[in-house]
Design a protein that fits this description.
2 domains, about 0% strand, MetI-like fold, about 300 residues, mainly alpha, 13 helices
Length: about 300
Amino acid sequence: MYPFGKGMARYVPLLLLLIPFALYVVFYFGPSVLTVIYSFTDVKNIPGSPVKFVGLDNYYDVFFSGNSGERWRSITNTLIFMVVVTIVQNGAALFIAVLINQRLRGDNFYRAVFFMPVVLGVSVVSLIWGMMFDPLSGPVNMLYEWLFGYKDMFFASFTHAFGYIIFVQIWMYMGYSMLIFLSGLQSVPKDLYEAGYIDGTTKWQSFRHITFPLIASSFTVNMLLSIIGAMSTFDIILATTDGRFNTRTMAYDVYKETFRGSLEMGLPSALSVVQFLMILVFVVVAVKQMRKREVEY
């Protein structure tokens, strides 16, 4: 029996959906459409200012203006950031999830410890690692001096700052990926492992032919989340280096051009569209490849 009765009562579910749908249109879909439209105009962040259609001029400025060298460097940094974070974060998260899934003593404690950085927030995490990487009195620098006999500038280093930001990103979100892998591992039937043990499979063969195929969907989810998260990260960069020392990415450029640049909104809108298209391409390719592997398994 239909729970909402007959007549007009049948439309109650649709009416209940109107509020979240309106919120989605106002705060997500609407601004996204306006961003695409603004990217083809010279709109300024001044109420009542005239708006003129400029075609692809903003996109030309993104790649070929006087600051095009910095733009290309930001794109390169974004790609490096995405590749390293995706590979290392998922590899480390899978390794830790496999260890915790062995029913070690205190496994709930280990889950909480590894997941804790996720709930701390970017500001707290950046503050923690800012103190840890303090070039004068930070404990990591003291450890470096004791082990290697030299000190580093960490977030103030032109050669190492970007690598440390990648490390902080991985440290903060690895626990989230670990939980997704762990949920997939715990859904694998134990009978399969017992059958493999009877057939004489090694631990690596068991992981390669039983575990990994059955957690392929978890791997796909983590890959997509890592790619999207890495290519849209700007808050950690803002809180640690503020884009200095060759640590700018496309997401940070969008933030800077929008809130710290000129009053023109056309260029940051074009940057946002380019960033979205890059993320879309990588996500589509990743989904296609991951789904293909899931089918093969």
